[in-house]
Amino acid sequence: MGAGYIGRFAPSPTGPLHAGSLVAALASWLDARAHGGRWLVRIEDVDTPRCVPGADRLILDQLAACGLQPDEPPIWQSARGEAYELALDRLVASGWAYPCACTRSDIERALASQGRTKPRGGELVYPGTCRRGLDGRAARAMRMRTSFGDCATEPEITRRDRRLGTQRQHLCEAVGDFVLKRADGLWAYQIAVVVDDAAQGITDVVRGEDLADNTPRQILLQRALGLPTPRYLHTPLVLGANGEKLSKQNGAAALDLSDPLAALRKAGAVLGVHADAPDRDTWLRRATEAWRRLLA
Length: 296
Hints:
Elements: E1 6-9, H1 19-34, E2 38-43, H2 55-65, E3 75-76, H3 81-93, E4 97-100, H4 104-113, E5 141-144, E6 157-161, E7 165-169, H5 171-174, E8 178-181, H6 189-199, E9 204-208, H7 215-225, E10 231-235, H8 260-270, H9 280-295
Parallel strand pairs: 1-2, 2-3, 9-10
Antiparallel strand pairs: 4-5, 5-8, 6-7
């Protein structure tokens, strides 16, 4: 790592930053600064029905209030559809992607007929119904193939996480063929993040641990598209009173930035970063030194 390091923070504008999202933003910023690299911001707004008008600008203002300034102007995924379409065309041409006509109910019925059900909190594993063609049905979505033969013979995807250590997932069995373009025409997170990480030259992805399960899907896409795989570090989560991940979906309060230094200290504590400082900028410098020591 070093001068070639490029990291990023990629929030979805579904509301303002909260305590959990500041932890992820701070971790990615500290990692970039500790390695003498660059830090970028990408607004992941492909899921337009969930986006809140003005939330993108509010998030950028919140980051600025915390002293977390990107080294390049932010980009918006909603302006990147052409790049995603080109990637999908390549995947179709190489046999990795195919059209799917199944509804969620179709998938549930197909799994039930096989005596399989969705595990609590787990994935609804696609049974591969449309791999052999649509049988005259209209295509609804585009899917990424996770195997070209017997699922059981496919190897696990193994990766090394900088915090979690060695991680393995048998993608075909755990997830099944996954969506790249949704039935409503919107791009799925997996293809958008892979294309954009490559386009921005991202070398290191530092994000919340809740996204760790997405990494094998993204690695498969990177391999299929001939793109580099970044290093990954998944940070601890901030939990709500119910013990679940603090998020906008479970009512996480907007970040209180009446005292940015206090907010940064709380976020740093979650990461194991403790620094005494009289002001925000001094705290960020000392926190970067503390992060560097954690990495040693």
